[in-house]
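Q: Hi! First time doing this. I have a protein sequence and I read that you can turn it into a structure. Is that right? Here it is:
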Amino acid sequence: MVEQVDGGTSRPVRAGRRLVRWARGGEARGGSPWTRGRVLAVLAVLTAGLLVFHRAVPNSVGHVGSLLEAFLPWLGVVVVALLGLALLRRSALALVALLLPVAAWTYLFGGLFLPGAEPGPRDLVVVQHNVSDENADPAGTARALAGAEPDLIALEELVPSALPVYEKTLAPDYPYHAVRGTVGLWSRHPLTGARRLDIKPQGIAEGWHRGLRTTVHTPHGAIAAYVAHLPSVRVRASGLASSWRDESAGLLGAAIAAEKRDRVVLLGDLNGTVDDRGLAPLTSRMNVAERGFAFSFPAGFPLARIDQVMARSATVGHIRALPATGSDHLPVAARIAWG
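A: Yes, that's right. Below is the predicted 3D structure, encoded as structure tokens:
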């Protein structure tokens, strides 16, 4: 039952009216447009600080810094929410303060919206996909990936029961392939020297094989191709559990640093975004996509791109997400332009 006071007006209704007056800058708060919304202005400045100085957020406890960086683009939603509140409050102070996070977000991510360069004759089109070890339709997944007409297709979470299906379905257009452990690469061009790549962190049981290195002989020269599936991360009450992922990224980065070929491409489910400092051993050595967000996980409501395409001595142009398959990841496709 709602208590009636003041001639029949309920307390919840009165509280709601006060909230509306506050949002509109009414009598409950008063002040001029330059004095209202100080809290919103402070929040805007803090948001800008997180965007610009995200590397300064400590990672020693709970990998909080990596957790922030995994969802860094989504701070744009915070900026939009603050903008809406600033307009309701009619706060000129908050609106001016919001110029800081808007500028920071645009600097970091605005370029991803720009159109990519025109395709060149030497470009390599690649597709990267974690196909899921629970995929009930591997043949349909393979046909969907081949439909993008890439030169290379990298797959992770290949299980023995599904591997023959992928081999048979992709064989007509991709006669060359190499599989090591649960990762594989299919190619229109010949492959040589395929070998297993040891990126297993300490503490993971034997039999964990998620790395592959091979040479792709394209019409425009040989390329060292790496396919990797780094350990998963978990968000817990204590923070982000990413120690194994970070260790594996370090091993992979060391292998790429020792690679003798100048031209290198890395395709894989890296379980991290390119802003995540946990992938610094890779992003510090390789170029990442210059255009496109291509959020790939989870497939039902993608929040981040953890499926990556990186290259050395080349430019990774526009990256895009492909339609959903039977996996919990979306495939991503990118065009690599060699210098």
